[in-house]
Amino acid sequence: MKRRSIAAVPAIAIALGLLLTGCSSPTGGGAAGTKKSVSAAPSKAAKAAEGTQPKWALKATASGTKLTSFDVGGARVDVYQAGTFTASNDVPGAGKTGVNEGDELVLLNVVVTNTGEPVELDGNVAEVTATYTDHPDQDMSGLLDDDAFTRLGVNREIVDHDKHPARPYLLATGDVVSRGVPFKYLKGEPIELTGFLTLADYDATMPEGHGTATLK
After folding, report:
1. What is the largest CA-CA distance in the chain?
2. Would 64 disulfide with which of 80, 96, 111, 145, CB 3.0-4.6 Å?
């Protein structure tokens, strides 16, 4: 699969797809003056992910209950169910399931560990899409609930863009990064996961992997 243009977030599309057509990277949208910084670090109580922390990334966390793991190229993707929260706004374009203010949303925490060779990545680094089999399209880019990410110990983005605005980003062997993927919560429903590493080389083929899980 050739690299596609990806709107920067989950990103949770490791949107890893933060692409994110199933669950879009949640950096966009919102009225002026209402959106909080998307670079806010998770709470101090967040569980640290195992691995080496790249200097350019926000601190990786492993918050939540582990659902599944799958491989994307030379990387391992671990997916955790971090928790649920209530949407504080309507999300236009959220697909067949729809997302309205007051709906219960689930936040996945996607942790990516490079188990292969060092690789240079673009600003999204890694993306993961999470979709329900019967409801394949959820664009969550208009979601404003940054405080939910912080409370649940999950990064909204991978890169600390305030301190490290320039790409490419080197993900060395053993490096670990993480980000969140929010979407409407349907307890007990199976989800399909697609992960990508967004390479800095625009002409290269993006590594892709797939996994499945069931929400608790």
Report:
1. 44
2. 80
- Residues 47 and 62 sit within 8 Å (Cβ to Cβ): yes
Sign, CA torsion 82/84/87/91: positive
Surface-to-core class of residue 17, CB atoms within 10 Å of its CB (0-12 exposed, 13-18 middle, 19+ buried):
buried
- Residue 12 and residue 23 in contact, taking contact as beta carbons nearer than 8 Å: yes
CB 108 within 8 A of CB 211: no
Torsion of CA 132, 134, 136, 142, to 10 degrees: -70
- pTM to 2 decimal places: 0.78
**DSSP track, 121-184:** EEEEEEEEEEEETTB--B--TT---HHHHHHTT--S-SB-TTT--SSPEEE-TTBEEEEEEEEE
32 Cβ contact list (under 8 Å, min separation 6): none
Please identify which residue in the block is written with the tokens 């709906």: 103
**What is the rounded CA–CA span in Å between residue 118 and residue 162?**
24
What are the start-end ranges of the H helices in the chain? 146-151
Q: Mapping DSSP to helix (H, G, I), strand (E, B) and coil, where does residue 146 land?
A: helix
Contact indicator for 15, 128 with CB cutoff of 8 Å: yes
Closest by CA position to 94, among listed 23, 11, 44: 23
pLDDT tens digit sequence for 136-183 = 555 566 666 788 999 999 999 999 999 998 889 999 999 999 999 988
Omega cis (within 30) before 165:
no
- The structural domains of the chain, ordered by start, are 65-214 (2.60.40)
